[in-house]
What does this fold into?
Amino acid sequence: MNRSSLGDNIHGDEILLPVRGVYIVVTMACALLLNLIPVPRWLASAAPDFVALVILYWSVFQPHRVGLWPAWALGLLMDVANASLFGQHALAYCGIAYAGIFLHRRIRMFPMSYQIAHVLAILLGQQAIQLLIRLVSSAEPPDMLYFVSSLTGAALWPAIVAILMLPMRARPKAEEV
Amino acid sequence: MQASAPPIFKRGPSLVVRLTFFSILSVVLLVADARFHYLEEIRSALSVVLFPLQEAAAMPATMLRRTSDFFVTQASLYRENERLKRERLLSEPDSQRLRMLESENQQLRRLLNMPKIPDRERTVADIIYESRDPFSRKIVIDRGTMQGVKAGQAVVDYLGVIGQVTRAYPFVSEVTLLTDKSQSVPVQNARSGLRSVTFGVGHDGAVELRYMPVNADIQNGDLFVTSGIDGTYPPGIPVAVVTNIERSTAAFAKIICVPSAAVGHYTRVAVLSDPPPRPENPLGKPSPTPAVSKKE
It folds into this structure.
């Protein structure tokens, strides 16, 4: 482990336990599962994209371990599941991973409200990429409700951070307490 | 960053290089899929990987449905049973008449040397989920090529046409609904026999009849059924009911219909087997220079 990836385990004042690779894979599988849950049509545009959120989380908090290729692979799976164009989610999720890794120092320093603003911008950006791809391939533009998914996703960001960080928080040992 | 810096922190290619690599790869895939329809094998391999997750994700909804089925009261079961018995009694004469007409029709067709109308086999499938893709109208059903489902087959429920299988994977299939922008169904007015084609408008609960002249014999409430001339849908299945006609001064009337099938209300559909092979074109293959042959 080199110095900079040691820095990945520092969050604010606390030092987190190192992340196990299995945990990263499990969280990604869970996100995929959540995305596959059937939702009624009227709710579909409000449902957050959990895979996008988890990719963003790992690229912000473990930028040296999670690169672009997991994002790309998850994107391909989402394309098959959603019956969208092959490569549409892959490209958008690569954009998320890139933005997350590029901005990881800044995002981690910010208070939660600023973090949410960044997350919102990144999620809107990935939706815009997908919209652009579909418009180029001659689909009709959807209504503005399309972007609600990003709003709910950004609103979920504090919960995602809290839940995904839970296993890495060092438990106080008995003698310290 | 100096080029001569010793590789203490070796990290492979830079972020921008990796982003460019994956972006180019994605764009290549996009073009191959959208323009040339390659990669169907890769798609179906990924769908096999995804299948257990899809089943697991649909589990809560299935469980909920099953438990609510379990707690149906006896009174409501009794009522439903009575209603079904009554309906059967009412429809029995009709089905007897249908059998009689069918045999008569077969006889007449034989007399006229016309080919027999073949029966289509049906595969019953459950809808796993509706695709979340906001740009298209698709559902995913739990029958695939392993159960004999093929791309291009027609999908109906007991009220009418739902759509067409557009991609068949080993265990699941994608069905494009008739409300999708890219979907069109050849139809016939059940009242006047007028033929037309429905086009999806891209949102639920409406299809459109395009290119109909303003004086076309269509009224509100007219039922359009499949005409069967495409060979995909068998003739006579309800497709849509006309709800709104705008006869403006434009060349064509604007006719909006509501689909008969209840997508989103039921979870079970039937996939009709392949259409029978069509008879050969008696005129042979179209000549390479149709303009010349027309003049003759």
